Amino acid sequence: MQEFHDIWEPVLKALSEQFTSTIMNLWFNPLELAAFSDTTAVIIAESNIKKKIIINRYKETLEQTFESALGFPVEVCILSDETAVIDRAQLQHDVGMGMTGEVLCAKYAAENDAPAETTVDTSSASPTANTPKTAETAAPQTNREAAPASAESRTAQEQNAHLSLSQTEPFQNSDYTFDNFIVGSSNKFAHAACIAVANSPAIAYNPLFIHGPSGLGKTHLLYAITNRIRENKPDANIVYVKGETFTNQLIESLSISPQYMAQFRAKYRQADVFLIDDVQFIAGKTSTQEEFFNTFNELYEAKKQIILTSDRPPKEIKTLEDRLKSRFEWGLIADIQPPDLELRIAILRKKALDMGVEVPIDVLNFLGENLRSNIRQLEGVIRRLGAYSNLAKRPITIDMARENIADVISGAEPVKVTQDKILNAVARKYGVTIEDIRGKRRTREIAQARHVSIYIMRNVTDLSLPSLGRVFNRDHTTILSSVETIQAKIREDASLENDIDDLIKEITNQ
Fold first, then answer.
1. Contacts of 84 (CB under 8 A, 6+ apart)
2. Domain co-membership, 306 together with 382
3. How many domains does the chain contain in total?
C-alpha cells in the first residue's frame, strides 16, 4: 500500500546492504507491506511456498531490519494470498485493534492457505541465493548423517567461493553526501578529516581511522567519501568490506585451494581506496590479522588510501596485535561522539523535513531532550511518529510523542528536570536562591554557588556551553571560565571536591 511506502522503503534499503541484488529481486522486492502498527508489520508474499521459505529463513532478519531502520522493535507476520485475496482494509483494521502478529498469522493462514499444503524443504534453496554476504550460515541437518563432500559438492563449494570473492560489497548510495551530513561539535573533526581524504586520497591522511559508537554517522561518512572520490576519479577501484566478511572470505579461500587464496589477495591488494568497516572484528584471529597486516602494508607502500572504522580507538581494541595498532595510528584518528542537544534537535528537524513529516518545534525540543542514544534512533522516531500520525489522522503533539515513544525514551531524566534539581540542591547547600544563582549579584556565596551549579550541570547533563549560557543568562566564555575555576579549586581543596560529589549523588539519586 502506498501509505506504507515511507516505512517499507528504508527497510528494503537496509536489506539491500545485506544481500545481493539477486536475493533482493527473488525474495524481498516482491513482498508487500500490507498492514502496519507501532508493534506489528504484516507482509504478504506472492505464494505459499515463498511464504514458508521467508518464514523459515528470513523472518528474524526482517524483524531485526525493521528495528534497525525504524528505531523500535516490530513483530513481523508473513502471509500469502495465493489461495484467496486478503482484504487489506480488514487486515489493517485488525492490526489497528491491537491483534498480535501471532494471532494474525493464525487467523489469515487458516483462511487463505491451501488446504493441502506441500511440504517444502527450504534447505534445498541455493546457499548463494539466500545467505547474507556478511555471515556464514548452514542449513540445519535433520535425521541424516553428514556425508563426505562429493566431487559435485566440492565443485559447488568452489563456485560459491568464486562468487563470494568476485562480488563487491554494495557500497554506493548517492543519498549520503558531505552536504547533507549535519555537523556539530561532536563530529566536526571527523567530518573535516573525511572531506580532506575524499579530496586528496592517500595524500591528506593515510590511514584514516574513524571510531565511535554505532549509529552516529560513521557509515554516512564512508558513503560520502566514496561518492566524492567517484565524482573526482570515476575509474578509481574502491573496495569496501566489513571486518566479519574479510574473515569469512579468508577462511573460505584457505579451505579450498591456493588459487582462491590468490584471488582473495588480488581483490583487496589491487584497490585504490580500501575501506574496512568494523575492523575490531579481526581482533583475536591470528590468521586474519596476519593477512590483514600484509594487505595493509602492500596498500600503504603503494600509496593507496586506507580507511578504517571501529566502535573504539585502536589502543582499546583488546587482542588486536600491537603491530596493527601502531599502523592504525600512523595517519589520523578521528572520533565521533553522541550528539549534544542542539545537534539532536537539528538532526530531528532535518529528518522530519526529508520525510515530509510535520513536527512542531515543541515536539522537536521534547524529543531532543529525551532521546540521547544515536542518530539512527532519532530517525526511527520521526518515521514512527509520521506513520502513527498518518494512520490515526492526528497531528503530532507532545502527548502523542510521549505515548508512542515511551519504550525508546532513555531512562535518564529529561534535561529540564535535572537542571531544576541541580539548581535547587546547590541553592540549599549555599543558602541562596535560584534567582541569585541566575542573577547578576556577585557576593562570594552567590558566585561560588553559581560556579558549582555550572560545573555540575556541565558534568551531569550533555548541554553544550552555549546551552548552559542560556540557562544562566551568560555567554559561553563565562560558562567555560566557571568550569575552569571549579576544576582549579578542586585540585587544591579536597573538602570542595567532597561537597560536589555529595551534591551529584543527591541530584542523581545514587
1. 111, 112
2. no
3. 4
